[in-house]
User: Fold this.
Amino acid sequence: MYRIETHLHTTYISRCGWLGAEAIMKYYTACGYDAICVTDHYNRECFDYAEIDLTTPGSKTQAFLQGYHRLKKVSEKYNIRVYAGAELRFDESDNDYLLYGFHDALLADPDRVMREGLAAFAPQYRADGALLVQAHPFRKKCTPAPAEYLDGVEVLNLNPRHDSHNDLALAYAKEHHLIMTAGSDCHRPGDQGTTGILSDTLPEDSFGLADLLRSGNYTIIRPECTED
Assistant:
């Protein structure tokens, strides 16, 4: 069984992230993971922190994916696959949404994406073939989004500094027949490798990860599960 992290932040883009590429790879190697998805924050605060100017012309996607690229560069030393992801926050609320399997053009204009909001983004990400999962929808300041705009819900988030009310997230996902995911929401030393998913197959890239999540052919790593 392959162990996959679905929710992780780097210090390069996520202002709240403490960990660089080498540290992340060492931690996840020690935890026995086979793949990790870098889901740095895609919000105004983090674009300011990373000094990405949203007012200049041209796509901002590759600048935003700096954390992913840095981990990808060192991944060969650690034999861990690295997938590109994002954790989007629109200007309209404090909700966060994990995005998998997207093409560059979808996130090229962050100012427009964040300003337009979830309802406008939903048909765009679906046309792109991407997958959108609401992260920790019952955490403080968050509210569950209308199910028609979502593919899934993160039903197990084990960031130790937040109460994500995972029981409520699970109930919401079941009620609306949404894809269920789990992530460590790693930001700092000690956050790594607490959950994720187990799969018989190891996706080649983020598009493959999105397909795996759609298939349902995986199990969630529970805190008590230390062995495959």
